[in-house]
Specification:
45% of the residues lie in helices and 14% in strands. It is of the alpha+beta class. The longest helix has 26 residues. InterPro entries: Dpy-30_motif (IPR007858), NDK-like_dom (IPR034907), NDK-like_dom_sf (IPR036850), NDK_H5 (IPR012410), Nucleoside_diP_kinase (IPR001564).
Length: 185
C-alpha cells in the first residue's frame, strides 16, 4: 500500500522591518545582514512619521506607560521601512531581531540585531511584526499603495500554472528547440 503525501507547497511570507531613527546611519550594514540571512527586500522607503502617525501605527500599545516616549522616539527622525519576504518571514525576522530589550538581548542573544544596534528597551534599533496579521496591517500602513494578495496554493496555484505559465514556457522552449540559437539568452 502506497502512502500518499501531499504535494509540497511554497509559501512566501512577508513581514515589516523598520530601522528606527537612531540607527538609520547603519542602513547598509543592516540590509547586508538581512540579505545574508535569506530575506528578499521586496520594498523599501525612507520616511519620517508625525507623532500622530506613530500613535496610529502603535495603537495596540496605547495606554501603556511607555507609549508617549515610544511615539516621541519614533517621530524624532527618519526611519527606513522594508517589506521582507521569505519562508516563515515573521518568525525568522523575530529570531534575527532578538529580545525587544536590547540590554537583555546582549546577555541572551549577543549576535541578534537588537543586541548589536539597540541601546535599551525603547531604543532597540529595529522593529518587527509580531504575527502574519500584524505584518499585513503594518505593511499596509507603511506602504499604502501595496497590494497584498494571498499567494495561491493548492488547486488555485495549479490552475494558474496551467493557464498562464505552462503555455508560455511551452511556446518559448519549442521556439528554442526549433531555432537552436548559439546564444539562447
Amino acid at each position: 500500500m502506497q502512502t500518499l503525501m501531499p504535494e509540497p507547497q511554497i509559501f512566501v511570507e512577508r513581514t515589516l522591518a523598520l530601522i528606527k531613527p537612531d540607527v538609520t546611519d547603519k542602513e547598509e550594514e543592516i540590509e547586508d545582514i538581512v540579505l545574508r540571512s535569506g530575506f528578499l527586500i521586496v520594498q523599501k522607503r525612507k520616511l519620517q512619521l508625525s507623532p500622530e502617525q506613530c500613535s496610529n501605527f502603535y495603537a495596540d500599545q496605547y495606554g501603556k506607560v511607555f507609549f508617549p516616549n515610544l511615539t516621541a522616539y519614533m517621530s524624532s527622525g527618519p526611519l527606513v521601512a522594508m517589506v521582507l519576504a521569505r519562508h516563515c518571514a515573521v518568525s525568522y525576522w523575530k529570531e534575527l531581531l532578538g529580545p525587544s530589550n536590547s540590554i537583555r538581548a546582549r546577555r541572551t542573544h549577543p549576535h541578534s540585531l537588537r543586541a548589536i544596534y539597540g541601546t535599551d528597551d525603547l531604543r532597540n534599533g529595529l522593529h518587527g511584526s509580531l504575527s502574519i496579521s500584524s505584518a499585513e496591517r503594518e505593511i499596509r500602513f507603511m506602504f499604502p499603495e501595496v497590494i497584498l494578495e494571498p499567494i495561491p496554493t493548492g488547486q488555485r496555484a495549479r490552475d494558474y500554472l496551467s493557464l498562464y505559465v505552462k503555455p508560455t514556457l511551452l511556446a518559448g522552449l519549442t521556439a528554442l528547440c526549433k531555432e537552436k540559437p548559439t546564444d539562447p539568452m
